[in-house]
Amino acid sequence: MGTKQLQFTGFNEKDFQVFTIDGLEERMEALKSQIQPKFEQLGQHFAPSLTAMTGEEMHYHVAKHARRTKNPPKDSWVAFGSSARGYKMLPHFQIGLWETHVFVWFAVIYEAPMKEAFGETLLQDIKVVRKQIPSDYVWSKDHTKPEVIRQSEMTEEAHKELFERLINVKKAEILCGIQIPKEEAIKLSGDETISRIEEAFQTVRGLYNLAKQAV
Length: 215
Prior knowledge:
CATH superfamily: Protein of unknown function DUF1054
Shape: globular
CATH topology: BirA Bifunctional Protein, domain 2
Number of strands: 7
Structural class: alpha+beta
């Protein structure tokens, strides 16, 4: 047997402070030592459960930010997709941090060639989608920005616009999930954090199933 996997302990104040460190190298160093080991733990934990949940073998990918040359990353994440080679071209799941919050997403980002077809599917199933997503969940149309729209504030017309944008705008993206504010996240134990993430993945699983139909 290999070495026993370390227990995930949750996120703490120091994890969020990584995104306040000046300088690319300095922030990357802190990311590697402070946050990436936790993403590895979450990757090892959730890849099997997402495999069971989706019926497809899911692989995890810890963001490396390798192409950055000057701007230090403002957020970081571990993503889960059905390819060992990468996730950006596929419907996928993410767990990550900004300086202000934890995010847990189902995501289809602009690299995904199936996003137009997914937009069409979402439009056809708009009423079902609106029923499936709880009011405290949030939507995003750009994974590089922290701004989101709460489900409780989304009219059917607003959803329609979001889904049509996926069809018509080349760089359009769609993400749905939860944000856990830093103040709340640092009080959660490792098990409580995992439980919140698990619940979010179960909730957005219907969107993943719809996205797979569009592939």
